[in-house]
Specification:
The complex is a heterodimer of chains A (527) and B (202). By secondary structure, chain A is mostly helical. Chain A has a single domain, classed as Cytochrome c oxidase-like, subunit I domain (Cytochrome C Oxidase, Chain A, Up-down Bundle), CATH 1.20.210.10. Helix content of chain A is 67%, strand content 0%. Chain A has 16 helices and no strands. In chain A, helix 7 packs antiparallel against helix 8 and helix 11 runs antiparallel to helix 12. The radius of gyration of chain A is 23 Å and the shape is globular. The model of chain A is unreliable at 1-5 (pLDDT under 50). The longest helix of chain B has 36 residues, at 130-165. With 202 residues, chain B is mainly alpha-helical. Chain B starts with 10 loop residues before the first helix and ends with a helix. Residues 1-7 of chain B have low confidence and may be disordered. Chain B has a single domain (41-199), classed as Four Helix Bundle (Hemerythrin (Met), subunit A), CATH 1.20.120. The chains are: A mainly alpha (527), B mainly alpha (202). The interface between A and B is large, with 46 and 40 residues.
Chain lengths: 527, 202
């Protein structure tokens, strides 16, 4: 189907009750909400990147640029912004909102007003977090994990930041409820469970994780707030409380949260690979079920964050074993993507570059996860840069690259414009080089014993720190080229056809950008 | 297969949403029950001794009040389904009054303790044994957060009264009040667990 500009009105031009900025804020259109989320996410991502650069800069000359106190605040805020404001909401709220209803042939999500409400409380939570950075008292310096009892006694604005994260959690829970209900109730005729695009499967699994894990974080954060405001000492040893219990509750959420970040990212890759390999996905059901597998097993591995915190050997062995189990479904996905590529006639467009990089970087992140999931190496490496490198490979190399993949894959559909391929690929190349210099050096640093979170270090670590920091600059240049290219295309790019890539899913059957209610008539899916 | 038709309400979908929300509530309270179990197994003697301080009579009355209110909201929903809107409003208001009574009795219990100096971070409480500090901390937090849920329930039922009056809730379109009922029953059930854990373990 070709776009014929005069025949339809895109959702950007749809008439509603409100004008100007309110036509966005008050909109219940899942696409408008998705776009707004995307803008907010990318804004916070940019702030997080700048803070990250500042951390790296400080580390090549400790004390020259920022003081120790500031350093603690900067890495804490870097974590809080990147985790809670960018990557946890990440794929579901931006791309999930925009594409979930379209992919299943629906006009909107099950609860459009609830969807708008989640956007509002996301804004409220984000405002609180930002406010905590500038209010008297000072930005949080606890790290993003808010470990007790320090978080209960620290002078900084922990209460504000924690309240902000609590509110953000609410937004996440309601999005999960909305998506799970949408997938159950609003599939188009003929869209049976095993015809669902794989991105929808991962959103479904993610929705359940959001539902079942986030409330645990919420109540844990409430305990922190109550501890600070009313002196309730559930995690305060001087009042009989147990700080280790905080870690258990926190990771009961925060490990599944890793899957909130990475599952929908895997969904994006499962969409992109078959389109550009010009083949059907290999082992559809295995990929779909592995998403459910990751979501359910991932609930029981939180203890591996605490091997050095104090736990019985039995508990540690069990947690270590389950950690190995959760690697199996991830491995299934990787093998199926590679099998899909095998003997495909791969089209070398920009999205596949990012998708393949995802597979490469995520594999490194995943395999090093097994190293630290084993007890003995963990005791050596926990609390070193090895951990930092590992989770940046998984979070940035995984979820982050998937977001870049999605941006390049769905950009024509979301904005109705094409971008030039060449700058995207140049940006990708520079980013890839910078990324590996930045984070692979950290693996070696960690292996040599460089502790994480430290402000200063013995001189023998300097060369690798320098390599890592230079990597961070190269990475930033790569990101800037990618962002500049897409921003320019947003205004100057040629109009995009309905289906620029030869995709088979429903979003490519409607014009770019989609009309307000997506489908002129409800699609019926036949084989 | 289910299709979304413009303007048509999806009653089952709304119910899905409510049940999923209640799952999240269970996990939210689950965090508190987890702390309770851990600390009670750590300090069994103190927990039993402290529970003797609770006012069993008021606690029992509150249990009866809340259970009855659950019956009332159920009747109110059945009344809507049968089209007896006046009867439904009477029972909704009765539910609200029961909820308020519950909060009133709770506040009597709380203020009685507070006048004796037992509240988090108080000089009296901080001198007590660690198990006691934790027991009363949990008591205030768990009944407090439960009380907030009761209060939210009262607000929601009040708006249901308004919707029934304005004809927004009818016997064809009653998922709002039905889901409110689910929420109210949930709040009730949480209390069913809180009551023995704080009052009956002496």
């Amino acid at each position: 189907m070709e776009n014929t500009a005069s025949e339809y009105e895109s959702f950007y031009h749809g008439k509603g009750k409100y004008k100007g900025i309110l036509s966005w804020l008050m909109s219940t259109d899942h696409k408008r909400i998705g776009i707004q989320y995307l803008v907010a996410l990318l804004t916070f991502f940019s702030v997080g990147v700048l803070l990250g650069l500042l951390i790296r800069l400080s580390l090549i000359a400790p004390g020259k640029f920022i003081g120790q106190e500031t350093y603690n605040r900067v890495f804490s805020v870097h974590g809080i912004i990147m985790i809670f404001l960018f990557i946890i909401p990440g794929v579901p709220v931006a791309f999930g909102n925009f594409f979930l209803p379209i992919l299943i042939g629906a006009r909107d999500v099950a609860f459009p007003r609830l969807n708008r409400f989640t956007w509002w409380i996301y804004l409220a939570g984000a405002t609180l977090v930002v406010f905590s950075l500038f209010a008297a008292g000072g930005a949080p310096d606890t790290g993003w994990t808010f470990y007790a009892p320090y978080s209960i006694r620290a002078k900084a604005n922990i209460t504000l930041a924690v309240t902000g994260v609590f509110v953000l959690g609410f937004s996440s829970i309601l999005t999960g409820i909305n998506f799970v209900t949408t997938i159950h109730r609003l599939r188009a005729p003929g869209m049976t469970w095993f015809k669902l695009p794989l991105f929808v499967w991962t959103l479904y699994a993610t929705g359940w994780v959001q539902l079942l894990a986030t409330p645990v974080l919420a109540i844990t954060l409430v305990f922190i707030i109550l501890g600070r405001v009313f002196g309730v000492g559930f995690f305060d040893p001087s009042k009989g409380g147990d700080p280790i219990l905080y870690e258990h509750l926190f990771w009961t959420y925060s490990h599944p949260a890793v899957y909130i970040m990475v599952l929908p990212a895997m969904g994006i890759i499962s969409e992109v690979i078959p389109v550009f390999a010009r083949k059907k996905i290999f082992g559809y059901k295995a990929v779909a079920f592995s998403a459910i597998g990751i979501a359910s097993v991932g609930y029981f591995v939180w203890g591996h964050h605490m091997f050095t915190s104090g736990m019985s050997d039995t508990a540690r062995i069990i947690f270590s074993f389950i950690t190995f189990l959760v690697a199996v479904p991830s491995g299934i996905k990787i093998f199926n993507w590679v099998s899909t590529l095998y003997k495909g006639s791969i089209v070398g467009s920009a999205p596949i570059y990012f998708a393949l990089t995802f597979i490469f970087l995520f594999s490194i992140g995943g395999l090093t996860g097994l190293i630290i999931g084993s007890l003995e190496p963990n005791l050596q490496l926990h609390g070193t840069y090895f951990i930092v490198a590992h989770f940046h490979y998984v979070m940035f190399g995984g979820a982050g690259f998937a977001i870049l993949t999605a941006l390049h894959y769905w950009f024509p559909k979301m904005f109705g414009r094409m971008y030039p391929e060449r700058p995207a690929k140049i940006g990708w190349f520079i980013l890839f080089i910078g990324f590996n210099l930045l984070y692979f050096s950290m693996f070696i640093l960690g292996y040599e014993g460089m502790p994480r979170r430290y402000f200063d270090y013995p001189p023998r670590y300097f060369p690798l720190h320098l390599v890592s920091t230079i990597g961070s600059w190269i990475l930033a240049i790569g990101l800037a080229i990618i962002a500049g290219n897409l921003l320019r295309a947003l205004f100057k790019g040629p109009k995009a056809p309905a289906d620029p890539w030869g995709g088979r899913t429903l979003e490519w059957t409607i014009p770019s950008p989609p009309p307000t209610e997506n489908f002129a008539e409800t699609p019926v899916i036949r084989d | 297969m289910i299709v979304q038709a413009a303007g048509r309400r999806d009653r089952i979908g709304a119910k899905y949403g409510m049940w999923l929300f209640l799952f999240t509530e269970i996990l939210f309270f689950g965090g508190m029950f987890l702390l309770y179990s851990v600390y009670r197994s750590e300090y069994p003697v103190e927990f039993h001794a402290s529970a003797a301080e609770e006012n069993l009579l008021l606690g029992s009355i509150n249990t009866a009040v809340l259970l009855t209110s659950s019956l009332f909201i159920a009747v109110a929903i059945s009344a809507v389904k049968k089209g007896s809107y006046r009867l439904s409003i009477i029972f909704q208001v009765a539910t609200i009054l029961m909820g308020l009574a519950f909060l009133g009795i709770k506040s009597v219990e709380w203020s009685e303790k507070i006048t004796r100096g037992i509240y988090p971070n108080s000089p009296v409480l901080d001198k007590m044994k660690m198990g006691d500090i934790l027991f009363f901390g949990l008591y205030y937090v768990m009944t407090g957060i439960h009380g907030i849920h009761v209060f939210i329930g009262i607000c929601v039922i009040s708006s249901m009264v308004y919707f029934t009056l304005t004809g927004n809730i009818t016997k064809e379109n009653f998922s709002k009040i039905e889901n409110t009922g689910l929420y109210w029953h949930f709040v009730d059930i949480v209390w069913i667990y809180l009551f023995p854990l704080f009052y009956l373990i002496t």
